[in-house]
Amino acid sequence: PGLKEVGTYGAAAAFSFYGNKNMTTAEGGAVIARDAQLRETIRQARGHGMTSGTHQRLNSRTPQYDVTMLGFNYRMDELRAAIGLVQLQNLQEWNEIRRILVVLYRRLIADYCSAVTVPFGKPRTSAYHIMPVLLPHDVDRQTVIDHLRTKGIQTTIHYTPVHQMTLYRQMFTEIHLPKTEDFAQRELTIPL
C-alpha cells in the first residue's frame, strides 16, 4: 500500500524474462514507456530499425518499408509471448512462494550461522528474484560452495564488480572500490 510499482518510476522501464527470473519466456523481455514517440522508437529499434513490421504491412496493404535508424532483432516470437502471458497469471502466487522461502531461509541461516547476512533485512515488498547472502570475513566462500554441492545445492556468485570485468578494467585502470570488492568476495547466491 502506498508503494510505487516497478516500471512506474521513469520515462521507460525494461523487464527481463530470462530463464532464471520470477516470470520467464526463456529469453527476451519487455520495455514499457509512457511517451508514444519513445514507444515507437523502441518498437522500431527492436525490429531492425524498420519503419513497419510484417503485421503492420499486411494490415495496411503497403508492402514497402524503410530503415531509418540502426536497429536490432529483439522481437519476441509469438510462442514466447504466449508463454509469458500464461506465466504472468501465476506471477503473484510464485512471488508469494518466494517470499515464504526467503522467510524460511532467514530463520534457518540465523539458527545455523548468525554471522551470515541476508542483505535487505528490513521488511519490504520484494520480488525476491534471487537469494544473495553475505558470508562473514573469516569464512572461505569456496568451502561453503563445495559443502553445499555435496548436499545437492547449487550456488551462484552474483554481482561481479563491473570495474573488474576485462573490458572496463582495460578502460579504467585506476579504479579501486574496496567496499564493492569486499562485498563481491563474500556474496553467495543460494537457490530459491
Quick structural summary:
By secondary structure, the chain is mainly α.
CATH homology group of the domain at 130-192: Aspartate Aminotransferase, domain 1
Find the CATH topology of the domain at 130-192: Aspartate Aminotransferase, domain 1
Query: Could you tell me the number of beta strands?
Result: 4
Q: What is the correct CATH architecture of the domain at 130-192?
A: Alpha-Beta Complex
| CATH level 1 class label of the domain at 130-192 | Alpha Beta
Q: What low-confidence regions span 5 or more consecutive residues with pLDDT below 50?
A: none
| Order of helical and strand elements | EEHHHEHHHE
Shape: globular
N-end to C-end Cα span: 25 Å
Note the beta-strand portion: 5-15%
Rg over CA atoms: 22 Å
- The strand line-up of the biggest sheet is 1-2
What structural category characterises the helix and strand content?
mainly alpha
Average pLDDT figure:
88
Largest sheet: 2 strands, antiparallel
By DSSP (H or I, 4+ residues per run), the number of helices equals 6
Q: What is the helix content?
A: 40-55%
